[in-house]
Write a structure and sequence with these properties.
Structural class: alpha+beta
Distance between the termini: 73 Å
CATH class of the largest domain: Alpha Beta
Radius of gyration: 22 Å
Number of helices: 11
Strand content: 15-25%
Number of domains: 2
Number of strands: 12
Order of helices and strands: HHHEEHEHEEEEEHHHHHEEEHE
CATH topology of the largest domain: Beta Polymerase, domain 2
Helix content: 25-40%
């Protein structure tokens, strides 16, 4: 048996996986040390390994596969999910990993893996023939990204993401919004989709959002210091974007 070629079948593996080829833990440890010394495998972090390609000398596993093996229920989310869905025009070196179990941030092969608490497992899909990748669907990716807009993605990336989406499932959006029970999230998502989306969402969706926003008046983002007050969504938003979208300020009052 050539252990290296057996391990090539798994992009990311643990010592427990290697145990199946040996009678005891010590033999497994010795085999792993031998393969690392021969530069055939490399350690990602504690009890997580990948093979090294004989052709390129680089890790066999990509950042998405690594992220989904950090914990038992880990999955990629936020702008890492946007990248995976092919809706970002740049590569980020922070990999956002949602998980019910906490892990310490770490670096590997130029990428930093960051922990995000996973509130639910809804909207997470396992991609077939991907080497174990689990990723939030478009609707969950959008809701999560808007929820954490000031912490992770930023308003410009969110707007670009929304403009790139051609179809959204309203029922899924409402499901994820209901799970979070966050008035501000209803406010932000409703405004952003109404202003920038071409996905053809109905008035039913927007009325659902409006029915949950209450009376609170907020800034859309901490990056907005001056703007216009949007009466409908009770938010201060970017005057430049609104002006370009609407061809004028209309009923909004500049502040």
């Amino acid at each position: 048996m050539n252990l290296y070629f057996e391990l090539l079948q798994e992009p990311v593996f643990t010592a427990d996986y290697v145990n199946q080829y040996y009678d005891n833990v010590e033999s497994t440890r010795s085999a792993l040390k031998r393969l690392m010394k021969q530069k055939l495998i490399m350690k990602i972090r504690n009890n997580l390994y990948t093979c090294i390609s004989g052709e390129t000398g680089a890790p066999v596993a990509n950042r998405f596969q690594i992220a989904c093996m950090i914990t038992k229920n880990a999955y990629i989310s936020h702008h890492t999910a946007i990248e995976y869905h092919g809706m970002s025009d740049q590569v980020y070196y922070d990999v956002y990993v949602s998980s019910e179990k906490r892990f310490q941030e770490f670096e590997f092969d130029g990428y930093t893996y960051k922990y995000i608490p996973a509130k639910t497992q809804s909207g997470v899909e396992t991609v077939q023939y991907s080497g174990g990748i689990r990723v939030t669907n478009l609707e969950k990716t959008l809701v999560d990204s808007v929820k954490d807009m000031d912490k992770i993605a930023g308003i410009e990336e969110i707007i670009a993401f929304i403009r790139s989406i051609r179809k959204l499932d309203e029922q899924k959006l409402c499901q994820y919004l209901e799970e979070y029970q966050n008035q501000f999230l209803y406010q932000k998502l409703g405004y952003l989709l109404e202003t920038y989306s071409t996905a053809g969402l109905t008035d039913v969706f927007y009325n659902t959002c409006l029915s949950h926003i209450g009376k609170s008046k907020r800034y859309l983002s901490k990056d907005i210091y001056q703007g216009v007050y949007n009466v409908k969504w009770k938010m201060i938003v970017s005057d430049t974007e609104d002006y370009l979208k609407n061809g004028g300020y209309g009923e909004d009052d500049r502040i």
